[in-house]
């Protein structure tokens, strides 16, 4: 019996369950002890091991990127590099921090129109 796995990792979406990867690794470990592995099986086992390590790394990276450091008063003490990553990945609303609210945008827009002569009639 061969276990063949295809794992795709795209933008943090993993199409294979970690449990299946571990089952496949354990299957090949038992088979190697009992009968040995041919080249194809050894390559599949190594691929499973590599994918397992990659999934662990992705999971750890995702956990670290979601960390937000605050003090007792609720002040954000997250390091700037983490804030930049979180802003890029739209985590914790960081991508919204630099955006102006609608009233402020309207105020800036209207201020830019002050140079226009209000006596000019627009054709409808």
Structure description:
The chain has about 120 residues and is mainly alpha-helical. The protein has two domains: about 1-65, no CATH class; about 70-115, no CATH class. It is built from five helices and two strands, in the order ββααααα. It has helices at about 20-35, 40-65, 80-90, 95, 100-110; strands at about 10, 15. It has a two-stranded antiparallel ribbon. Strand 1 (about 10) and strand 2 (about 15) form a beta hairpin. The protein is elongated.
Reported for the largest beta sheet, the result is: 2 strands, antiparallel
Strand percent estimate: under 5%
Number of helices: 5
* SSE series: EEHHHHH
Which shape, going by the Cα principal axes?
elongated
* Uncertain residue segments: 1-14
Total tally of structural domains: 2
Q: First CA to last CA: what distance?
A: 77 Å
Beta strands, count: 2
Percent helix, as a range, is: 40-55%
Secondary structure topology:
Blueprint (H helix, E strand, L loop, with lengths): L8 E2 L2 E2 L3 H17 L4 H27 L14 H9 L5 H4 L4 H11 L12
Antiparallel strand pairs: 1-2
Helix pairs in contact: 1-2
Organism: Fundicoccus ignavus
Pfam family, one: DUF896
Subcellular location: Cytoplasm
What can be said about this structure in brief?
This protein is mostly helical and 124 residues long. The protein has helices at residues 18-34, 39-65, 80-88, 94-97, 102-112, and strands spanning 9-10, 13-14.
């Amino acid at each position: 019996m061969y276990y063949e796995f295809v794992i795709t990792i795209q933008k943090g979406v993993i199409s294979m369950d970690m449990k299946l990867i571990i089952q496949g690794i354990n299957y090949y470990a038992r088979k190697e002890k009992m009968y040995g592995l041919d080249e194809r099986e050894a390559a599949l086992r190594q691929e499973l091991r590599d994918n397992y390590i990659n999934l662990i790394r992705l999971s750890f990276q995702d956990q670290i990127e979601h960390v937000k450091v605050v003090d007792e008063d609720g002040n954000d003490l997250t390091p700037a590099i983490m804030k930049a990553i979180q802003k890029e990945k739209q985590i914790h609303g960081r991508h919204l921090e630099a955006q102006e609210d609608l009233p402020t945008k309207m105020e800036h827009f209207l201020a830019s129109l002050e140079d226009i002569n209000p006596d000019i009639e627009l054709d409808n």
